[in-house]
Amino acid sequence: MEKISTPLTEMLGIDYPMIMAPMFLVSNAEMLIAAAQSGITGTVPALNYRTDKDFRAAIHEIRTAIGDKPFGVNLIANKSNVRLQEQLNTCVELGVDFIITSLGSPRKIIEKCKPAGIRVFCDVVDTKYALKVQELGADAVIAVNKEAGGHAGPTSASELVPALVKACDIPVISAGGVGNGVQWKEKIDLGAVGISMGSPFIATHEGGVNDAYKQACVDYGAKDIVMTTKLSGTPCTVINTPYMQEIGTKQNWLESLLNKNKKLKKFAKMLTFYKGMKMLEKSAFGATYKTVWCAGPSIEYVKSIRSVKEVVESMVEEYTSTTNVVER
């Protein structure tokens, strides 16, 4: 297939301007290898690995399989991630190609990665924060819009991407609201240099979760996605399963009270995050009626469980078909 050239493909040396977004529990080495072999690049959350030994083994596995093709790691930058320094040191030592930062100040990540030649892309939801990370030395911002899976932003891509392109001197990557090649092309036309896409890759053969989770992404659609604060304390998108309907999407009175207390807020958020991640883990890997599956509205376009390569190829075909129609 014909390559799609943008500043992101030139920066990373990939064929198509797409990053397979980091997905908690879902992303794994197999997915990143398949992404690289399909002409895009992938990322994995460092928190998907319980130990530094497991994390190192995954990085070695990916690098051995894809050679000098790029791949990235997602680091949670706030205080809930007590393993941040260890994870960062490992990324620098083993030479990952880029880091995506989420939920917190990326200052120390940028300071550590810059001398090592590792690019840092920062999740942002508004212009104010984008300008802050640009000043810190970020190489690009990821515009997380309100259709993103996981921790979504409050603004539409059609508003956020152009605003960031106008305000920033560094490239803007769009995250959220892409489930087909037409929507991918739309984000590029808004001024983005590429996209970060996750949810459509959950239902892939390489995806590291159980078949029930993958099938849910086929069976449910955009109308079934709801926001909850129960998983991390920060609004997060999940599929509105019967169990989610049973427990509700808002924190209970005690959780809300603790989060308002200045002295206890930090510990309450860490506890919420821990409990929420355990809930997601049970749903992703085990058989349970307590299903809590994280996904974005772009599962609307997931019609079957396919390979990573098939997802990429179909989207590239749609993208290029759209481009050809416009050019005619």
TrEMBL record:
Cleavable signal peptide: none
Family: Belongs to the nitronate monooxygenase family. NMO class I subfamily.
Pfam families membership: NMO (PF03060)
Organism of origin: Flammeovirga aprica JL-4
The protein's name: Nitronate monooxygenase
UniProtKB keywords: Flavoprotein, FMN, Monooxygenase, Oxidoreductase
InterPro entries per UniProt: Aldolase_TIM, NMO
GO-annotated molecular function: nitronate monooxygenase activity
